[in-house]
Write a structure and sequence with these properties.
Blueprint (H helix, E strand, L loop, with lengths): L5 E3 L3 E3 L3 H18 L19 H5 L4 H10 L6 H6 L18 H7 L4 H22 L3 H12 L25 H4 L7 H37 L7
Helix pairs in contact: 3-9, 6-7, 6-9
């Protein structure tokens, strides 16, 4: 090659559009940087790679769940630990009465105030998973694995979650392809359909629960701080 052709150690000679290639490499570098630290908010590599449903993010008229995802993934939720770090409040104790630090993880996974809602969401997603498995005709062992995983979506279960902690409130779910790839009763097309359908159910249930919890939390904080309401 001539002395003016760009070269990268990983990709070799770059013969395409250089500005586009540089943008791509910078995006990859930013992604890797964000995946380290930041409470694993951007550690998407560890979870299911199936694209989420478009409707909730692009077409829904009420985009509350999508907004909660934006703030959660960027570390901008107004929980006490973040507010204290920014010197907005003096302590980071849970303002709902728990004897724990009020962090996004505490609010969405540990806070006893929302145990009932997590249980309700668990029952719903388990029933949907069972129905999908029976409709498609998945073998008993694979069905059991999927149902067991569905039961642990909203709790920290090191046997289910690759990072030993639930990240449902960030729209992340365990990798479904690993659960169905050895299902002898399914063809390749049926496996893909199963992954897409169950992934959509789990993702929707996860971000809706997160949206419901944080919406209620915001209302309670507004009442606690005597903020005026809009009519």
């Amino acid at each position: 090659m001539n002395g003016f052709t760009f070269h990268h150690a990983a990709d070799g000679w770059i013969e395409g559009n250089i500005p586009h290639y540089i943008d791509l490499r910078m995006a990859q570098m930013s992604c890797r940087s964000l995946a380290i630290g930041h409470s694993h908010r951007m550690a998407t590599w560890a979870h299911d790679k199936t694209p989420p449903p478009d409707y909730l993010y692009l077409k829904a008229t009420a985009a509350h769940s999508a907004a909660v995802q934006l703030y959660a993934r960027s570390g901008q939720l107004a929980t006490a630990d973040i507010l204290k770090e920014r010197k907005k409040i003096d302590h980071d104790n849970c303002r709902l009465g728990c004897h724990a630090t009020e962090s996004p993880r505490h609010l969405f996974i540990e806070c006893q105030h929302y145990d009932k809602w997590r249980k309700e969401a668990e029952r719903e997603v388990v029933e949907k998973t069972k129905l999908k498995a029976e409709t498609i005709g998945i073998d008993k062992q694979t069905k059991c694995t999927l149902v067991t995983t569905a039961k642990s979506l909203f709790i920290d279960d090191p046997m289910i979650w690759p990072l030993h902690s639930s990240f449902y409130y960030l729209g992340q779910i365990p990798t479904i392809s690993k659960m169905v790839q050895n299902a002898s009763s399914l063809t390749e097309i049926q496996q893909r359909r199963t992954i897409a359908n169950i992934s959509a159910d789990w993702h929707i249930a996860s971000i809706r629960l997160a949206g419901r919890i944080f919406g209620d939390f915001q209302r309670r904080m507004a009442a606690l701080n005597q903020c005026p309401t809009h009519t």
